[in-house]
Amino acid sequence: MKAVLLISHGSRYPETKKEVADLVGRLRNRRAADLVEFAFLELESPSIPEGIDMCVTKGAVEIAVLLNFLNSGRHVDIDIPEIVQKARLTHPGVKIFITKPVGQHPKIEDLFLDLL
Questions:
Q1: What percent of the chain has pLDDT over 90?
Q2: Which run of H or E residues covers position 52?
Q3: Handedness of CA 114, 100, 75, 37 (dihedral sign)
Q4: How far apart are CA 61 and CA 33, in angstroms?
Q5: Is it true that domain 2-115 has CATH number 1.20.120.160?
Q6: Which of 17, 41, 59, 104 stands 20 to 30 A from 67 (CA)?
Q7: What is the per-residue burial (b if ≥16 Cβ within 10 Å, else e) of 8-23?
Q8: DSSP 78-112
């Protein structure tokens, strides 16, 4: 089973978790993968390790860690890859890969123009 785990930073502001959950619901409706879940880097639950564990428990053998981050930075380049590497060791039979941040998508300027 293929899973998508949408990763966001996390916030103490309660609306943030609701927005992330709503986005995941839309991805589920669009059949982004057999399983679509979300997790947070910090400040909110579930954590990234908890999200990966949840996907594996539900039967995932491949997990795409979808970065809900705009650009590269410490979290994208160091923190999240370290967390994912530990998860790979915990779940050696599961393929886990990380997408690029949203800002590196070739159509990001189209999104920004649409917002304008």
A1: 99
A2: helix 48-57
A3: positive
A4: 12
A5: no
A6: 59
A7: bebeeeeebbeebeeb
A8: IIHHHHHHHHHHHSTTSEEEEPPPGGGSTTHHHHH
Tokens 């293929």 correspond to 2
Helix (H, G, I), strand (E, B) or coil at 62: strand
- The Cα 9–Cα 69 span in angstroms is 7
pLDDT (average), residues 57-64? 98
* Residue-wise pLDDT tens digits, 5-51: 999 999 999 899 999 999 999 999 999 999 999 999 999 999 999 99
Question: What are the residue ranges spanned by the domains of the chain?
Answer: 2-115
Distance, CA of 66 to CA of 85 (rounded, Å): 15
